Amino acid sequence: MGFLDKLFNSAKRKDREPPEEQLKQLHPLEKFVLNFSENNGKLLLARSEEQIRKYLSYILKEENKPRYWTYDKEIRKQFLKDLPVSKELKPEKTSILLAYAHYLIESDGGIMFTAYEIGEFRLIDLPDTFVFLATPEQLIETKEKGMELINRRFHKSLPSPIRTIKNFGKDEDSFSKNVYLILYV
After folding, report:
1. 48 within a domain of the structure (yes/no)
2. Domain of 42?
3. Are strands 129-134 and 139-140 parallel, antiparallel or unpaired?
4. Does residue 11 lie in a domain region?
């Protein structure tokens, strides 16, 4: 059997593998992206802070919202200096929430965040559109692993709440948020 025969036969075998087996062969970041997309999340890849700011500007226009709201003062200084931002201490429903993701959950494409990223606000009190900033280093396998890492890191002052969302989009039948993830690579 020649090289090309081996190559094409292996491709045919791969097509016959069940989807679960194909999923196991993906890189962890590819699995996350696949699951995140299936949850109706919108993923943007950025290579610079300037590109992140451009994306933030585009998202405001796309969502037809007047401004961003963030709990994090560093985000305000670093990314929102040229964009409209709410000065309110409480989130405004007409704004877009901008926050760092604490962890990206590979197994279900979810995003974990804590009171350190959004304050002690309930999800229902936050805007309907979220924009999270993250890096590939924040990727973990499961929510349980994320909770374990948070417990270990913040064992003396555990943040409350700790949330993981994975139901994205504008689904009227369930409690969901419209979620963008800007992955800084």
Report:
1. yes
2. 25-82+92-184
3. unpaired
4. no
CA distances from 33 to 41, 107, 146 (A): 9, 10, 18
Summarised one tens digit per residue, pLDDT across range 66-89 is: 999 999 999 999 999 899 999 999
The whole-angstrom separation of Cα 67 and Cα 152 is: 36
Tens digits of per-residue pLDDT, 51-60?
999 999 999 9
- Degrees to nearest 5, angle at CA 91 with 172 and 79: 105
Q: What is the CATH number of the domain that holds 167?
A: 3.40.50.10420
For the chain, how many structural domains are there in total? Answer: 1
CA 180 to chain centre: 6
Average pLDDT value for residue range 23-30: 81
Flag whether 59 is in a domain. yes
Rounded to an integer, what distance in angstroms lies between the CA atom of residue 23 and that of residue 111? 20
Residue 103 contacts residue 154 (beta carbons within 8 Å): no
pTM: 0.84
In a domain, 135, yes or no: yes
Residue type for 83, please? L
End-to-end CA distance of the chain: 42
Pairing, β 103-105 against β 139-140: parallel
Q: What's the rounded Cα separation, in Å, for the pair 128 and 19?
A: 33
Rg (CA), the chain: 19
